[in-house]
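The protein record filed below.
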Amino acid sequence: MFREILSTVAKALLEALRAVRFVVGALLGAAFLGIAIIAGVYFYFAGDLPEIEKLEDYHPPVISEVFAADGVKIGEFWIQCRKFLPYDEIPKQVFNAFIDSEDSRFFEHKGIDIKSIARAFVANIKAGAITQGGSTITQQITRSLVLSREKTWKRKIKEAILATRLERYLTKEQILTLYLNEIYLGNRSYGVAAAARNYFKKDLNDLSLAQIALIAGLPTAPTTFSPVNNPIEARKRQEHVLGRMLDEGHITEAQSIAARDESFDIFVAGTDKDFNDPKAAYFTEYVRKLVKELYGDDFLYHKGIKIYTTLDRKMQNAAYDAVREGIEHLDRKQGYRGPIEHLSPDQIDKKSFEFAREIMRRQGGEVVYWPPKRDRVEKIVIEFIEGQNYEAIVTGFNENDVNIRIGPYQEVIALENLKWAKTFSTKWLGSDDGAYIKDPRSILKVGDVILAKRLSDGGFALAQEPKIQSALLAMEPDTGFFKAMMGGYDFRTSEFNRATQALRQPGSSFKPFVYAAALDKGYTYNTVILDAPVIYQVGGKEKVWAPKNYGGEYKGPTPFKNALQFSRNIPTVKISYDIGIHYITAFVRKMGISSPVEKYLSMSLGSSEVYLSEMVSAYAAFANHGKLVPQKSMFRITSSIGEVLWENSIETKEFLDTPPLKDKPSEDMGAADKSGLNPMLFREGNAAMAADNLILTDLELKTLYGEQIPAGNVITPQTAYLMTNLLRGVVEGGTGTRVKALGKPVAGKTGTTNDETDAWFVGYVPKLAAGVWVGFDEVKPIGKGVTGGNTAAPIFLSFMKEATKDFGDMDFEKPDGFPSANIAQIAGGSAIFGARPTQDITTGGADRAGQFFEDDLEDLTTGDQ
C-alpha cells in the first residue's frame, strides 16, 4: 500500500517536473523570441536613423551669410532659417522657459518619461480628447531629426529609439543645445536665435521675459499657437509658459504680471532675399549664383558658410542712387504713362489697407500688435523714406493740389511736383523744367492708384515705375575686385542682372579697341584719315555698305586723335578696313571680350553685342598699364566656425570669377613661327583664333602676342597709356565732356547705337573703372536725341563723384620707359620697329591686312636710317 502511494507521488512529481520544464522552456522560448522580436524591430527601425554620438555629429541646415569688404552683412542664403548657438550663448531664462513648459522632469528621465505619458493619458481620457502630450524634449528633437510629424506607430518607435540613443551619448546640456537650435517655431524660424530675429528683430540675449515666453509656447504647434496667424491662442500659450515658470520658482509673481502686460511689435518674416541689403541685391544674387555653381545647393543653403566679398558699401550706395536717379530723370522726360489702376469708392478702404501691408512688408515685414485683442489688429506704421515710391490713392483735389491717401495717412502732391507729366512719348523728350500740366484733373481723377515719391522737404511728387533700365558696374583695375554693381532699376521687380547677363550693342564705346589695335599696327595721333563718304562692297556684287557719321556731317582730313575724340564713324571704318577685321577680332579677344563677334566692318562701330562686365574689364586694362586682371567678387569663404574653406589670393589668383580662355590647339596655327612670342598670351590667343576661325599673318601674331608685351600683360604699357591719353581727350573736349565736371583726371568713351536703342559710357580714373548702360530690355528707341553723352555719362558722373570723394589727388602715371618723343608721333608698343601706315588711307584704299608689315619692313630696311 505504502509502495503504491510512493509510486503515485513519484509519478505526480515527475509530471509536475515535466510541466515545470515545459513552462520554463516555453517562458525561455517566449523570452528569447521577445528579445529577438525587439532586436529585430530595433534594428529594422534604427537602421536609417541619424548617428549622433556627440554634438559635433549634429549638422543642421544653418544660414549662410554674405559680407561686404568692411565686414558688414549684406545678405544671407537659407532654406531653413537657423543660426546655431552654443550652450553658453543661450540665456538661462530661455532654458527655464522651455523646460518648465515642455518637460519639467527633463533632468530626471532618460529620454522617455513614463510618468508624463501616464498623466497625459489620464487627462486625455477625462477630457474625451487629446489635450496633453507626453513627449519629452528629447523626443521632440527626434521628431525633427526623423523628418516626420505623422502620427503613426512607426514614427513613435523611431522617436523612442533615437531619444534613448541621444540620452545615452549626449549630456543633458548638449541635448538642450540641440533642441533649442533644431525646433521649428513658426514664422520661418528654426531654433531660438532665428525666432528672436524673425519675430522681434533682436538678438536672443536682448529678448524680454514676455518675448521669451511667447516663443517658448510655440514648439507643440507652431501654426496653431502662432502670434501672427492666431494671436488669441498664442496669448494663452504665453500665459501658460509664464504660469509654469512661476510654479517652478524661476520668476516672481511681479515678473509674471509685468510680462503679461508688456506690449511690443511682432514682425512677419519673409524669405532670405527679404533680409538682404536692397541696395546690394544684384551683387548678392551674383555671388549666390557663383557659389551655387561652384559648390552646389547643399553647400550654399545648409552649411552656414560666411562669404566675404569685395563690395564697397559706400560705392554701392552711390551706384544705387546714381542709377535710380538717372533712370527716373529720363523716365520723366519721356512722359507719364498714366495711373496704375482705377478704384471704385467702395474699394478704396480695402485697397489702401492692402497697399499699407505691402509697403510695410518691403520695409521689413508686416507688424502685429502685442498683446492682441479678440480681433486681429495690425499696426499700420509707415516710415516714409526720402526718394522711395509709395502706392497712393487719389482722394480729391484742392485747387491745383492733389489729395492722396497712403495707407492711413492723408498727404498732398503740389502742382509743382506733377507738372512734368506730359503724354508719354519716345519720339520727343520733355525738358527738365517743362511745365506740361496746368490742371492735375487733366491726368488724374478720384480713385486713381498712383505712385508718390517722398521728397526731401517731406512732401510728395507724382512718380511712376520706369520702363527704361540701366546697369552700372565698377571694379578696381589693379585687383579686378568688383566694388559696385547695379543690374537694373529695382531687384524686387526684376532680378535680371543687366550688368552681367544682358548682351547689348556697345556702339561707339567699342571704338577704343579699334584705335588701340591701330596704334599697335603703327598708327599715331597724327595719322590723317579722310572723313568723307565711302562705300564698301560687303558680300555679293550688288551688296554695298555706306557708313555714316552721327548727324550726317563730314569733317574732311581728320587726325587719328580727333577721330576718336569726336567719335567719327567714317575714319573708324577706314582704319578697320585697313588693319583688318580678323586682326581686330583677335585684339578684342585678348582684351577679354568673349561675346560672339561678327567679323564685318560694322563691328568696328559696335554692332556686335557685348556684356557691360567685359567692357568695364577691358577698359580697366588701359588704366592698369596693359594688364587685364580677372574680375573677382569674393575674398574668402569660411565655415560656420571660422575655418577657411577657400581663399582668393591676389598674388596667386587661386579663384577667378572670369577665368581665362582655355588652351585649345589650333590646326591653323600649326605652321606659325612661334619664336619671339609671349608664350602665355599666345596660348590663350591661339584658342581664341581657333574658335573664331581667324587668319593672321606671322607679323600680326607678333604684334598681338609678341615678346615685347610683358608677362602678365595683354598690351604693352605704352599702348595702354596712349589710349588713356586719347580717352582723356574724349572727356576734356569730345563726346564725353559732361564727365569733365568730376574735377579729377578721367578717361572714357560714350556709345550710342542706331535709332538710339542703347546708350553707354565706359571710363576710369586711376584707381577705379566703371561702365553704365541705359536702354529698354526690349530693343527699341529710348528717345530722339538720346546719346551716351547725355544719358549714360551723367549716371557715370554721379556715381564717380561719390565713389572717389576720398581718393585725394591722383593722376594717370606714365609707364616706366615711355618714349620721350612727341606723344603725337608715338605708335603703340607692339608696332614692330616703329612702323607706320605707308598707304594713303584717306580715300579708303584696299584691305592690306595681310601684307601691312611686309611693306613697312621693306621700306625701313631699304631706306635711309
